[in-house]
Inverse folding.
């Protein structure tokens, strides 16, 4: 047996060595072939109409593998062979620009140099657009920008995650919990990154608000159907957050709302670009005063408060090197309003530190990144001050993730080759008992846990992109992960064609693996969820296609798009914790408490599928009018024990519309409407009463088929009125908004106890009382100051 194990390990190692050797040979051969071709150096500078340099401009040589980006001083450098090339310059907030460059062949050994100066006109409407191409290339990747988030009526304050459902194929289960579902996937099947560094739990107040100050973010790329080759580990996609890009001029911003106050500063210090943002809430103090002055306040009222901070340092050198460091931290806390015993306040959040560095040459580049992240939550509660030895509530979650990756890319006239490797190490510590699960986790996690789990994933990846003709791009790649001595291959293919400068079509096919899972969909009010590491991954095959149409050209302000997708989940998980009853336990009203045997839930394996069609249209004109509408038709199903049923987040129809209209030079009115089908729910088919003595009976519900019912449809209308003006060297904005203006009663789920109590009344009963409601009408006010 030992000999067979060694032989298998040797075979795996030999296979990995052969793959690495093959990649090196390809790189070396390609480099040698390119070295025999004489190149022409193209240098230049991109500036705005007021002669200020524009950094981070995307440069693409159409019909080839050559690409680049401007440095902090707006300068760039390319190396091209002889021929005619159309060079396109793009950046969000500016009109795209093109230059036609003709390079003649030369026989001498001297390097020929051409200089190109480009001036880009500002496009204020582009900054306000919601549906944008994340990189100027792919219509399979959409993004929501900073300015667009400020146009939509916010829930107290602008929130990056609450702006994502404006995009097609992106949904939220209700308007209380701020968890995202991408293209029919579960809420734990996508990743969230900040400047390419992975995050775990960037949410506040029991998953109600996002943990980011919008002023510190440039945009959020939503990668549904196509992931970069270096990414694997999430089934439904990725939400890639990008911090605010450095600007030639320093900027400062202060935002004050009813929930929090924040400040953001961006400026250069000694050649280093510094971005610093911090936010703190005072909602806990407001609720504390309300609870003390309200006679019906219970001792169990949780008073949430939060803080978050972000720091980014970035620097570029004329030697073509660049580096940046990102630090992010968030912390939530909750206290009891009128505690009658000892209590340690509940705290949860995460901290992340990461660094990126790279070297950019005209025809190749190398980049590396490393990060460490810790998500945590903890709470200890005692029965009373005189019973400090009886621990009723214990909760401790610490989930650390460390990741390092290196990627190299080489560009040629008609093709581009990239490859690299990464290592991810995870250590999860779970300590809790049942009360912590019931009160704060609110999921199907085991009622008790006392375990530490570890996982290491080593990956290698390679991708080849070819440009056979000017308007066509095709690529094929492979991502191989090794976990626990087993290897998992994730092939991917991509095809795109520009039919004109107005129409682009794309097709993508990928296999994805995910090596973790949560114990069911968490409810609203839940905190950092425990993530359980899997030795056998979840698997999904993803097929996506899209067509983007700009009838008036790249700078016309009108964008129409359509996408169709199909997903097959070969391996999906369903948590079923094992429960046993012990003779001794804490006193419940109806007997001893159930305690679990297992510290890890038993994940049942099943299958799933998603079929979807998404349509969207947007107008962002120079007249400051913004209009956007999107519709998604989607069905998400899963199969367990041979029974097919809708997923709990399945909502077949989803429609959203955002309109922002200037009333005058200073006043702007915006409105947001959302309509969607109700999500699937499990109905109660029978209610019984179990005698427990002394004339008392316990109510027991017998449920029907899982997800065989459906909640009522969801609808909501939000409005906001903004006034902007300039005074004392600063730009001022005051906004007044109302969420759920029509006071629509949207159900979170049925409260079956109230439901049956309502049905048994002899008089008329308001059936709305049988449903737990989501947000009521919520007015708020906020102020922004920029200088």
């Amino acid at each position: 047996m030992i000999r067979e194990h060694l032989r298998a390990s040797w075979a795996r190692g030999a296979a990995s060595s052969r793959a690495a050797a093959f990649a090196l040979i390809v790189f070396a051969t390609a480099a040698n072939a390119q070295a025999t071709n004489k190149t022409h150096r193209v240098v230049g500078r991109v500036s705005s109409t007021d002669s200020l340099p524009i950094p981070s401009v995307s440069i693409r040589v159409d019909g080839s593998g050559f690409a680049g980006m401007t440095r902090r001083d707006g300068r760039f450098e390319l190396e091209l062979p002889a021929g005619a090339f159309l060079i396109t310059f793009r950046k969000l907030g500016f009109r795209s620009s093109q230059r036609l460059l003709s390079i003649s062949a030369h026989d001498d050994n001297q390097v020929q140099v051409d200089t190109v100066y480009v001036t880009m006109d500002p496009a204020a409407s582009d900054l306000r657009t919601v549906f944008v191409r994340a990189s100027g290339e792919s219509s399979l990747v959409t993004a929501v920008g900073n300015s667009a988030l400020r146009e939509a009526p916010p829930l107290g304050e602008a929130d990056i995650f609450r702006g994502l459902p404006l995009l097609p194929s992106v949904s939220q289960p209700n308007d209380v919990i701020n968890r995202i579902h991408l293209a029919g996937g579960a809420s734990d099947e996508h990743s969230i990154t900040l400047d390419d560094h992975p995050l775990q739990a960037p949410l506040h107040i029991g998953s109600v608000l996002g943990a980011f100050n919008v002023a510190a973010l440039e945009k959020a790329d939503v990668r549904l159907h196509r992931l970069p080759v270096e990414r694997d580990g999430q089934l439904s996609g990725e939400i890639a957050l990008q911090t605010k890009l450095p600007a030639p001029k320093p900027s400062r911003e202060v935002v004050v709302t009813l929930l929090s106050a924040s400040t953001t500063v961006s400026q250069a210090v000694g050649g280093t670009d510094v971005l610093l943002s911090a936010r703190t809430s005072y909602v806990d103090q407001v609720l504390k005063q309300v609870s003390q002055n309200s006679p019906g306040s219970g001792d169990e009222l949780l008073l949430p408060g939060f803080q978050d901070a972000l720091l980014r340092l970035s620097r570029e050198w004329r030697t073509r090197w660049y580096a940046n460091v990102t630090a992010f931290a968030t912390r939530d806390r909750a206290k009891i309003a009128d505690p009658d015993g000892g209590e340690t306040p509940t705290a949860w959040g995460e901290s992340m530190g990461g660094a990126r560095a790279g070297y950019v040459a005209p025809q190749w580049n190398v980049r590396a990144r490393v990060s460490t992240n810790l998500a945590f939550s903890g709470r200890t509660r005692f029965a009373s001050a005189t019973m400090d030895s009886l621990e009723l509530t214990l909760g401790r979650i610490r989930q650390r993730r460390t990741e390092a990756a290196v990627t190299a890319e080489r560009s040629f006239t008609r093709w581009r080759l990239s490859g690299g490797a990464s290592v991810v190490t995870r250590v999860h510590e779970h300590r809790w008992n049942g009360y912590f699960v019931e009160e704060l986790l609110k999921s199907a996690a085991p009622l008790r846990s006392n375990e530490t789990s570890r996982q290491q994933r080593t990956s290698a990846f390679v991708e080849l992109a070819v440009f056979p003709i000017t308007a066509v791009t095709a690529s094929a790649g492979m991502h191989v992960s090794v976990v626990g001595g087993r290897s998992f291959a994730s092939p991917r293919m991509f095809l795109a064609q520009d039919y004109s400068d107005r129409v682009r079509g794309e097709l993508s096919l990928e296999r994805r693996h995910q090596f973790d899972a949560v114990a069911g969909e968490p409810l609203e009010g839940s905190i950092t969820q425990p993530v359980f590491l899997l030795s056998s991954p979840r698997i999904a095959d993803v097929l996506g296609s899209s067509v983007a149409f700009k009838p008036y050209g790249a700078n016309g302000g009108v964008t129409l798009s359509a996408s169709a997708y199909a997903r097959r989940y070969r391996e999906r998980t369903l948590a079923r914790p094992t429960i046993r009853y012990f003779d001794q336990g804490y006193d419940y009203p109806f007997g001893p408490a159930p305690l679990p045997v297992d510290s890890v839930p038993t994940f049942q394996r099943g299958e799933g599928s998603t079929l979807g069609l998404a349509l969207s249209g947007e107008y962002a004109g120079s007249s400051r009018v913004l209009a956007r509408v999107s519709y998604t038709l989607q069905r998400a199903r899963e199969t367990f024990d041979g029974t097919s049923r809708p997923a709990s987040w399945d909502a077949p129809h989803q429609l959203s519309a955002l309109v922002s209209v200037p009333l005058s030079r200073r006043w702007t009115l915006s409105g947001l409407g959302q309509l969607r089908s109700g999500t699937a729910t499990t109905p109660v088919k029978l209610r019984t009463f179990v005698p427990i003595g002394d004339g008392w009976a316990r109510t027991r519900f017998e449920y029907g088929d899982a997800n065989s019912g459906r909640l009522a449809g969801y609808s909501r209308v939000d409005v906001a009125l903004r006034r902007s003006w300039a005074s004392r060297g600063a730009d001022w904005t005051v906004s007044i908004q109302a969420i759920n203006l029509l006071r629509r009663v949207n159900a979170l789920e049925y409260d079956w106890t109230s439901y049956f109590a309502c049905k048994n009344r002899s008089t008329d009963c308001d059936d709305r009382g049988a449903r737990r409601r989501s947000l009521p009408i919520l007015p708020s006010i906020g102020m922004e100051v920029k200088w």
